Amino acid sequence: MEKRxxxxxxxxxxxxxxxxxxxxxxxxxxxxxxxxxxxxxxxxERIVAKCSGNMIKNVRCVTIPGSGGMTGIETxxxxxxxxxxxxxxxxxxxxxxxxxxxxxxxxxxxxRCAVEYLDSEIPLHFIIALSASxxxxxxxxxxxxxxxxxxxxxxxxxxxxxxxxxxxxxxxxRSGLSLEAIKAFADEVELxxxxxxxxxxxxxxxxxxxxxxxxxxxxxxxxxxxxxxADGVVTRMKAFAAAASExxxxxxxxxxxxxxxxxxxxxxxxxxVIVYAREKNIPTEKLYRALVFSSLLxxxxxxxxxxxxxxxxxxxxxxxxxxxxxxxxxxxxxxxKATIDNTLANxxxxxxxxxxxxxxxxxxxxxxxxMMAHYLAMQNREYEAYTGILKEDAGETISCVGYIGxxxxxxxxxxxxxxxLE
Length: 422
Hints:
This protein is of the alpha+beta class and 422 residues long. Helix content is 56%, strand content 10%.
């Protein structure tokens, strides 16, 4: 594999596998609000959040970490504006204290936070306006969660991102991603280059999985799976991944290493692989390489779908996990492709109706389907090309599913948002 492409893939991993404290959409709002307060120079007297439909969909049902159990766009903006640390990125709310919560509640109780619908074709798009002492600061974010494209104060531009970067949301070229290139990179990368990334991913994502299993979050789906289903590696994979998601959606004050802007995708693309490796006593080196494979395959799939859509990202991440397990178990490139095709022949249509605790159930179902695909592939059983949406090559199938998620389900997304707003 050429060195240039290796460096690009390492940069992609560093851009995408970052820690986030809570569900990423409300955290993005909190981050932008904290950036705005920094420019305003004081705490705001009023906040208006203009949000795209997908942002509204993904914030309204999740508990905001550090809030004391509160939910909603207004809460995320208020906490970020009065108590957030903009230098912490997606961990902006990590150090919110009682005083910060009290000041945020003052804004909320006084009716000084408002939400407006932003009619935008960009799924991840919002503008935060903060006002105080006759001054107003506006922070606009597009495409990715911390991609601040402009900041204005009293109508004057304070910051404006270069147009090319503003429209992509990331700096590293993704055009070199392909199934074959991802496998070559996972095979060849020096572990010293990626060890720190994956040591942190394993620690963070398994810590919240253990917390979810033992704690009291949502309806306790992870613990139920572990106690009620037949004991085995797939049951434990589903239980721990679902528990991690439920804790995160339920406001657990622990960070997660995200993937493609999503904590649930970060969990579903890593926890099953880690649990499988531990159960099967697979060497650490193999585990790291499998996690590299799973991370990049998730990113590759999401490049076609987009950060937010009507297509549930748990499918892409669980598909990547199972393909990585096939890779880790010594499967051929043909068996890896079969794992992907078998998964996408089965569950290419789970809808995303917003971030919430039931995302944990979708993760468990997606892992179940993808592991069935893995076991079929390891017995050299694969659905034939042109069965439904399957194509001759797994990469083509991925692009077709991406097209369906991004373009074909565009109207579906609008109808889901309409129902939720009603």
